[in-house]
Every structure is written in C-alpha cells, then in structure tokens.
Amino acid sequence: LEPVIRNGGDKGPGYYSSNKDIDADAPLPDEFGGIMQATREIVDMIDKMDGLTPSSAARSCRDIKLQDHDASDGVYWIDPDWGSHGNAFQARCKFTLQETCINSTKSNKDEKFVYADEIQVKFLRLLSVSVYQRITYHCKNSMAFDGKQNSINLIGENEIFNMNSRSKYRPMIIQDDCKISDGVWHKTIFEVRTPQKELLPIIKVKPFDTGLDKEYRIEAGGVCFVW
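Structure tokens predicted for Collagen alpha-2(I) chain:
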C-alpha cells in the first residue's frame, strides 16, 4: 500500500490506495454464492405461487392477486406458514372484497366445527387485518334469540359471543325468523366481525331453546380473513 497525501503537506488524515487492481470477474466466495443461489430459489418460488396446485400454493389470496392482477374469484390452494406444502389447503379467494375464506371441514358428533390446520390458521391471522364469520341457525319451533336475555352462544377460540355480550363482541343479526313457532323450518343468521383475529373461527354453538317438538341444525359459514 502506498500513502496518498490529500490537500498537500502532512495535515489531515492519510489515505491509502492499493496498487493491486480489483478483478470484477473474480468468483465470489462460497458463502456469497450460496446466498445468491438461495435468493434465486426464493424468487423462483414466488413466481410459481399461482395457487392452482398444492405445490404452487401461495401464502394467502393476497399473494395470488399480487402475482396475477387478472386472477378471478374462486378456490385456490394456500399455505400461510409457507413451509412444506404437505399441509396446504384450499380456500375461497374473494379478490374484489380482499378476503381469504376457509370453510369448516367437518362437524364432529359433539358439534364442534373443524377448520384448517391450527398453525396455518394462526399464520393466516398474521397476514390479515380483520376477520368475520356467519353462523346460520336452522330451526323448527326453536328460538335463536328471544328478544330479551336469552340467545344461542357462539363459542370461538377465545371468546363466547351472544346477544348479551358487550357491544364489540355482540353478533349482528342478519335475519331472524326462528322467532316464528309454527312447526315449519326457519332460520336465523348471525354475523361476528372483529379486528381481533384470534377470536375466530367459531368452533361450537350452544342452543338455549331445546326440548320436546323443538329441532335445530347449525351451519357454520366460511371464516373470512380480510387483508
């Protein structure tokens, strides 16, 4: 190295330069080569996230829309934890409403609703700003809400929603025909909408108006995560 004096004299700091030319074509050290390869693989993976197959599952419907602005509403494969695609699942993408919706996969004999893998749901919450879900109570001579104190309980992950809940946890009644007792099937529709994403989905519903000549069926609508 040879000292290079700036501004003359010996005042100020000394600057040094190397006589050895830098070879721009020299190969990168192994660790940098590995980083570049990993980066290329991630970019290739993102380019293939069209959600059309389990192996091309996207993290959410939002990622599919970012990848393809012309994507239309429908059912796609998603993988929110972005790990192995072995636990990828299908969701309904409502691009115009900016929603990723998942249905319950089955209702067990204890009337619990089951959704996607629990870890996947947790990651989907992280990718969203709010969540909502509708529950339909099909009824014959069985009320869903008596207009006063009693209503069915919508049991979520960390909260119980009913018509006596505080306003921010109180379900909205979209339709209420179960107040009609005429021996004919009717229905009442509740909607829970909240920015507290950890409170949904609804996993169980507990009726209150049961007994002789009273029948009911419960339908869990898709839980929709808004992005």
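The mean pLDDT is 85.
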